Amino acid sequence: MKKYFIISAMFVLALFSGSCTEDYEIPYNDYDSFTWWASPKIVYNTLVRPDASNNGAVAVGKYVAFQDLSKGALTHEWSISAGNSFLTTEFTEADTANYERFINPNLGLVTTDKLVYVLFQTLGVHQVKIKNTYSRKVIGAVQVNGVWTAEAIITITVGPVVP
Predict the structure, then answer these.
(1) Are 102 and 88 in contact (CB under 8 A)?
(2) pLDDT for 38-54, tens place per residue?
(3) Measured between alpha carbons, how far is 131 from 133 in angstroms, rounded to an integer?
(4) Per DSSP, what are the bridge partners of residue 138?
(5) How many CB atoms lie within 10 A of CB 96?
(6) By the 8 A CB rule, do 65 and 38 touch?
(7) Is 135 in contact with 148 (CB distance < 8 Å)?
(8) What is the model's pTM?
């Protein structure tokens, strides 16, 4: 009986001696990322999904929403090509007749807003660019003057309205 007690005590000691190290905890929210979202169905980020395309299509006179979902960015900017406009956020999907009345007169072709609505007013191929800077490296970023810069171009083909 004494033999079983000694073996059991050694077994218990072995269990406790192996569990004295601290468990690794993943740092909560301690990361930077470069990603965005766009509608309709232009939700691809080729830096995250290399098999995806940053191309989309929309009818002339329609808008696409873009949102920066990045974490840890020092600076952020959206830029659009000429012939397009940023809209205010004061409209709903029911306002489908004329989006031109919602053009934001205070914005040109560049904004630092996180959520933007771009009205495509001319036929052709247009670009929307997102550019962020970071203090740490993120996927797809290059270091410029000591700051990591990540940018992506989303190509939108604007076609005629189909009745």
Answers:
(1) yes
(2) 886 554 444 444 344 56
(3) 7
(4) none
(5) 10
(6) yes
(7) yes
(8) 0.74
